[in-house]
Design goal:
The chain is built from 3 helices and 10 strands. It is α+β, with helices and mostly antiparallel strands. It has one domain: Porin, CATH 2.40.160.20. The protein has an 8-stranded antiparallel beta barrel with strand order 1-2-3-5-7-8-9-10. Strand 6 and strand 7 form a beta hairpin. The longest helix is centred in the first third of the chain and has 24 residues. It is elongated.
């Protein structure tokens, strides 16, 4: 959970700053001539977690089991390039998701992180619309902390006042995206992605099932042509 929070705090400002800088200055020092690229920030739905797997730990402490699902918000960043300016898209993305449910006596803090290597195929519809299917392969983890509520509304450092659980697994991301490009050779990108994150090991009982649908919005910039 701490890894997910770390990514959500520092990942999106860095990605957004890079995107806006690239769009504003037209810097293209690392890309080959004629190869479009984009860096972006993305925000959307995170995991809906169930605290059931940690019930035995909660029972030992006399803590209540939080009601499912424990929903969170995803923040991340990434980038992609179009191979030789053509339809093949190759890129990567990483991010974290987290939330907090503060109660009078007990508070719950769900969160996690994930990362993917993406492959896609771009269809250019109209003049400024990109549409592409995506296949992502990677991994991630989720965690939940249930703790006695304190005045700072954060998990106490005292281990005797909290119960934590976490798990990780391989993940597969099947999705599709649509983006509108704004600008000429360099510019901004606004888009949306929808898809389903599939947790193969969770389907066979090897780990907690982290499979879930998602909707995420994209803001970025770079070389568009």
């Amino acid at each position: 959970m701490l890894f997910g929070k770390f990514l959500s705090v520092i990942g999106w400002p860095a990605s957004l700053a890079a995107a806006l800088f690239a769009a504003a200055t037209g810097e293209d020092r690392e890309s080959k001539p004629g190869e479009p690229w984009v860096v972006y920030y993305t925000v959307g739905t995170g995991a809906g977690l169930d605290a059931g797997p940690m019930q035995s730990k909660l029972d030992e402490k006399g803590y209540p089991v939080p009601e499912a699902p424990l929903r969170s918000v995803y923040n991340g960043g990434g980038g992609y390039g179009l191979r030789k300016g053509g339809p093949l898209l190759i890129g990567g993305e990483g991010g974290g998701h987290g939330n907090q449910y503060v109660g009078e006596r007990y508070s719950t803090f769900p969160g996690g992180g994930e990362g993917f290597l993406f492959f896609g195929y771009v269809f250019n519809w109209l003049e400024r619309l990109r549409v592409y299917p995506l296949l992502g392969v990677g991994g991630g983890g989720v965690g939940i902390t249930v703790a006695e509520t304190d005045s700072k509304h954060g998990p106490p450092r005292d281990k005797d006042k909290r119960v934590a659980w976490g798990e990780g697994s391989m993940l597969v991301n099947l999705g599709a995206g649509a983006e509108v490009t704004l600008g000429g050779k360099y510019g901004l990108v606004l888009g949306v992605r929808v898809g389903y994150i599939f947790n193969p090991l969770g389907m066979f009982g090897k780990t907690v099932n982290m499979s879930r649908p998602y909707v995420r919005f994209v803001l970025g910039g770079g070389r568009l042509e």
